[in-house]
Amino acid sequence: MAGKLAIIDYVILAAYLIGTVALGLAIGRRIKTGKDFFLAGKSLPWWAVGMSLVATDIGGTDIIGVGGAAYSHGLAVGNFEWIGCVPAMIVGAFIFIPIFWRLGIYTIPEYMEKRFNVGTRSALAVTWLIFMACNLGIMLFASAKMMNVLFGWDETACVFLTAALVGVYTLAGGLAAVVYTDVLQCAVMIGGCLLALIIGINDLGGVGGMLESIREIEAAKDLPEGQMTDLILPADADTPFPWTGILFGLALILSPAYWIGNQAIVQRSLGAKSEFAAKASYIWGALLKNLIPVIVAVPGLIALAKFPELADGDKAFPTLVAELFPAGLRGLFLAAFIAALMSSVDSYLNASATIVTNDFYKRFFNPQASDTRLLTVGRIVTAVLLAWAIGFAFIIAKIEGMGIYAIFQTLMAFFQGPALALILTGLLWQRANGKGAFLGFIGGVCFSIALYALSQEGVQKALGMQPLFKVPAPFLFYSIWAFVVSLALIAIVSLATPPESDEKLKNVVWHFKKGATE
Amino acid sequence: MTPLHLIGEFFRNLTVAIPLGVVRLLFLALLIGLLVWVLRLPKAETTPPDGSGKPTENLKLWAGLALGAQILIYAFV
User: Fold this and answer.
1) ipTM > 0.90?
2) Which of A98, A466, A469 sits opposite B1 (nearest CB)?
3) Hey, what long-range contacts does A461-469 have (CB within 8 A, 24 or more apart)?
4) How many domains does chain B divide into?
5) Each residue of A169-194: pLDDT tens digit?
6) Which chain A residues are within 8 Å of B56, Cβ to Cβ?
7) Domain span at residue B36?
8) 8 Å CB contact of B16 and A234
């Protein structure tokens, strides 16, 4: 594989990387305050925010992971980009995002203090920070794996190179640099993946040829016909994506929790120049999302049709590119992959720095900090988080037997259900109060971790119990049950304790009704 | 079997019994319901306050397009 890159591939890749870093540094010259760094001075146009939403969401983990999951489990993984994104983005656009934008908040945990209390804010901030910091390491590891397959490059060097490139412009330009480089990255990513789709389909003799090969593979593996191409799979199918998990876990819980509660996602809309621009950005992102599974998941099926004996599904997309792409186009695809990776790493880096600076430093250590001071602190925190991400990438490299996508989804499942319960009750149910919110969130997270622990083979053997779930990697079900438990706890504790005052609630709930909680 | 197993088994048996055709209708109902809600939103919530009144400035059009694509996908894939 290492010998398959020509000089033209390197030229294209270098041009993309230099262009991205230069753009980010140019924007960085205009950053003077914390508001500039964390919210781009609330100056972002809808089209840039929308493309940034998509680019942030589609990371290197998705191109490798979704392609790999499609290779191993079929097109049902496309649910994560379709019903797992579009409905939640549209609901977010018209209900949640306008309220967040109007409040002038920097972070979702900040909203939680306005609505509930500082305990809830801190609990949410800690869990998001842990998740985002770990996710940074996962994303760096994913890039290293891809570059190792394509180039034969040393994985350690790849981790450091990616971190350095992203770190430079994120440190310099904050959210503005992140969003505008995301626009470039989104275009390159969509272009490169579209190329993989077109070349791959053409090589197989068209969509019909691909489907014919898939059916033969289904028969050879003794799978029900259609399992690799259907979106809706039976509840008892041998897949991580049964319809029950997709509808109840993904569409109704994980997806809304992500699109209206994930700091790395929501923060770009908080930087929009107007409330209407914030709404429009989500709608534009939802439109683009319709295209994503076609260009990311279908190439996984193409790889299955071409190379059905790969031992590791995560090698599907890289193998497809290495074997089918001519010189020059490999460089473009590699630029697309790195674009996807960088657009996610920069967003999570900036978002986690925002949470540390806003929800911990400013909130607890220096409430009187000037905007200039916050800019300095934000940049220092960004550098520290980058160092952490590099270290964690090497820890992740030692975990064997799990796909990248499953690791990422499992981490999210621990707290996304409870986080969604907080946001829904916070914005939609006036009677929810701070005590209920805090206990509900903590209880839900503990419950999901307990479910995970009880699903491990070693624990089951030690306790002499049967598996709780009959699907592999049941992360969707952890989030369903954690959400249900959180919601129940929030409701029970809120109803058993005094309500919040009208004065506190009037700008922070949807369709506030005076006196409704008396 | 623990109580967790019994609860899980109950819901598993319930959901396994639902035919896939009905499940597809559930997915479509969710999407169509959301589309109807979007189309019924007041104009003030879907248009810019200083807009020119052009239809293309109304977010209902674009949200409807995004949801329409989803309805087609889940109806046929």
Assistant:
1) yes
2) A466
3) A465/B2, A465/B5, A466/B1, A466/B5, A468/B4, A468/B5, A468/B8, A469/B8
4) 1
5) 999 999 999 999 999 989 988 888 89
6) none
7) 19-76
8) yes
